[in-house]
Amino acid sequence: MNKSLALLLLSCFFLPRLHADETFDATSLDDLHGAVTKLVKRHYPESTSHVLERTIGFEFSTRVYVTDLVSKMPPGMPKPTGTERGPMANGVWCSIWLRDGDLSSQPVYQRSEGELVREHFIEYTLYPNDSEQNMHMIVTLRLPLKTSPKEQRFYKEFKKMIGQFGQYVDRGK
């Protein structure tokens, strides 16, 4: 086994355990869920949202796509495909996962922040961090390939609000 492959396998095995000490429950997310829902409803009045354990999700006008998965494959290997939920025209899909740990003092995730143009939608990955409260989030937001000025405004407002997420989280301290 070559050194790069061994390193990749080890990182896949240990990375999920780095943040295993989770201390949130669903009630910790009530205020954050309320703030996110208020912003989303202003732009997408017919959207739905939910809280499940440490995850907040919302969507409007979505469907399941069969698409290339985000992965690194050796040259000559076929890209793996799978199903991903994403927005149709004028739609939105998002997953927000609240995690323990300060990203300024822990290893970062393998995938960097930013915008990724996929086959059927644009995917934004964000890792907002709150060092003071020792927590961060993994945010995946998907918008249509052709984003309107309305959708671009939503993204800017969403990114700004999500960057201040710590003020909405009650950790019962």
List keywords for this structure.
alpha+beta, seven-stranded antiparallel sheet, globular, 23% helix, 3 helices, disordered N terminus, 173 residues
Written overview of the protein:
By secondary structure, the chain is an alpha+beta fold. Helix content is 23%, strand content 35%. Strands 1, 2, 3, 4, 5, 6 and 7 form a 7-stranded antiparallel sheet that branches. α2 runs antiparallel to α3 (149-162). The chain is globular.
Helix count, per DSSP? 3
Strand content: 35-45%
The run of helices and strands is HHEEEEEEEH
Tell me the overall shape. globular
Structural class: alpha+beta
Indicate the percent of residues in helices: 10-25%
Query: How far from one another are the termini?
Result: 48 Å
Q: Return the average pLDDT rounded to an integer.
A: 84
Q: Largest beta sheet, briefly? A: 7 strands, antiparallel
Radius of gyration: 17 Å
Tell me the total number of β-strands: 7
Question: Spans of 5+ residues with little confidence (pLDDT < 50)?
Answer: 3-21
